[in-house]
Amino acid sequence: MCGRQLARHRPACEVRWAVTRSVEPVRCRAVATFPVQRPRRLRASAALRDLVAETRLEPRQLVAPLFVREGIDVPQPIASLPGVLQHTRASLLAEVRELADLGVGAVILFGVPSTKDSIGSGAFDPEGIVQLALGEIREAVGDRLVVMADLCVDEYTDHGHCGVLDGRGSVDNDRTLDVYAKIAVAQARAGAQVVAPSGMMDGQVGVIRQALDGAGFHDVAILAYSAKYASGLYGPFRDAVDCAIVGGGDRKGYQQDWRNGSREALREVFADLDQGADMVMVKPALSYLDVIAAVRAAVDVPVAAYHVSGEYSMIKAAAKNGWIDHDAVATEQLTAIRRAGADVILTYFARWYAERYAAS
Length: 360
Hints:
Distance between the termini: 44 Å
Helix content: 40-55%
Order of helices and strands: HHHEEEHEHEHEHEHHEHEHHEH
Number of helices: 13
Structural class: alpha/beta
Shape: globular
Number of domains: 2
Strand content: 5-15%
Number of strands: 10
Strand order of the largest sheet: 1-4-5-6-7-8-9-10
CATH class of the largest domain: Alpha Beta
């Protein structure tokens, strides 16, 4: 972006400062001070605090990540993700119906296949677990909530990486893009309204957009995992999808370095937008609130953030031990993510928060 474009997206006080600094700075502050100004006046009651709250958190702003597993007859609990299940197709359908009734904005599906191969072909198989579940969900709930599908292959590959490997055992970026294109079309054909590429391959959004348009799915949106960090907070998720890199290793060759902030993140975000992304995401959320804020200030598209499995499970574990107030901390964290600038939050707390919201 040029300087003029960036200035257009800066907060008003920052722009005014830039424009007027050679004359007289414009300060973003109230003129009056104590005792005329008493900020506590607006904190006097719950009703007053609610009236003037800067940040709102509603179920319609939440996306529930859901896991559907092939080859099981009853839902399976995930020990490291308390309260979250690997669903059967039948239990998944019941869960989605209940989430729709609660007003949750969307669900995003992750598949757990019974067989894997070197390229993750189950991810684009028309009879694959996610494709079958997508069709059933869309038929059951229609447009009552948004149905998204995670687009990656790590759950489906026998080596655990997010792409096709080359002869040296490294992820081959461009060969992987061909697989991603097939997955996108398969998911759209099955009923996905939004596909969410999470593999962090260079050029993935452009290839997916071209594939979707070429197959006639012009209205299927792309939620790009644009700033996805090689975080240590994904452990419970990998338990949920039975995914581990064979022989050890990591994903630092394609996911972002967590030492880097908004400069690298914005480079990724702008690249995805140039390629046709409709929404962009920062993942994880809490350790990257600065990145969420920077992305929100720089772009005009919806910004999502993923409150990831490790963030969720830390709250669950600490609350179980009586160290924190579960409800207070969960609500505080989700609100902080919204306050930083996220329009949409992917969170395992979606159902819990929606039930709490309905009861309030």
